[in-house]
Amino acid sequence: MTPQVLVLQHVPWEKPGRIATAFDEIGLGYQILNVVDKKKPDLPSFDEVAGLVIMGGPMGATDYDKHPGLKAEAKLARAAIAVNKPVLGVCLGHQIIATALGAKLHRGEQPEIGFAPIKRVDKHDYFSMWDKQINVLHWHNDVVGLPEGAQLLARSPLTKVQAFRAGSALGLQFHLEVSSALMEEWLDEPSMVKDLKAAGGSKSKLREDFAQYNPLLHPLADQVFTGFAARCNSYARRLVRAAQEGAPKDPVIC
């Protein structure tokens, strides 16, 4: 089987968006699964996974009693990072990776929903085009600490860890993946609109802000996600070579 990227989605509207577009543009296959409520999820063979993407969702990253599949996602993230398999987490996914690596999860001082600035703390090749400060789309209540040994990439006044690198993993608390079409899907989802209004926002204001910031964010998102897709593609080729040469498969480390 040709190695594919595994995309773990938790709710129908939190789609990979621009991340999937980056895979499509280089012809890299991916599989989208929702295993959040499955205690023993049926996941693809680990040695056939070219990369792992963990998307957002309204649940807590360590809410294992209500959503037992989250524990399997955390184990998969640790195993992938242990063998240097590319991993990307967005919002909840960012928190799942961080907590899987030992960071603490807690409720933020207040919800961070809508466009607001983050400050780049450190440069990485994923973020080589970024200015020191940029307005991005936020949509979260929980926050995480920085995993031990991880590189902090961005922060905001309300959230100390907005982006980090930990080995082969990249965590993004904010939402670069949201295209204009996906934004409209979010604004058609009652639970998202409820969160937005509870945080003092409105559909009209969010649409105005998206129109203002999207022209700058789009190329930055493309840079991050095409870079990640390229890493996954390289890893896929490595898996194919290993299979052809009869080399040992990726071990699953829990």
TrEMBL record:
Residue intervals of the Glutamine amidotransferase domain: 23-182
Organism: Bifidobacterium stellenboschense
EC number: 6.3.5.2
PROSITE patterns: GATASE_TYPE_1 (PS51273)
GO CC, alphabetical: cytosol
Gene3D superfamilies: 3.40.50.880
UniProt key word Transmembrane helix: no
Keyword set, alphabetical order: Ligase
Bilayer-crossing regions: none
Recorded superkingdom: Bacteria
Molecular function, one GO term: GMP synthase (glutamine-hydrolyzing) activity
Keyword Nucleotide-binding: no
Enzyme class: ligase
The protein's name: GMP synthase
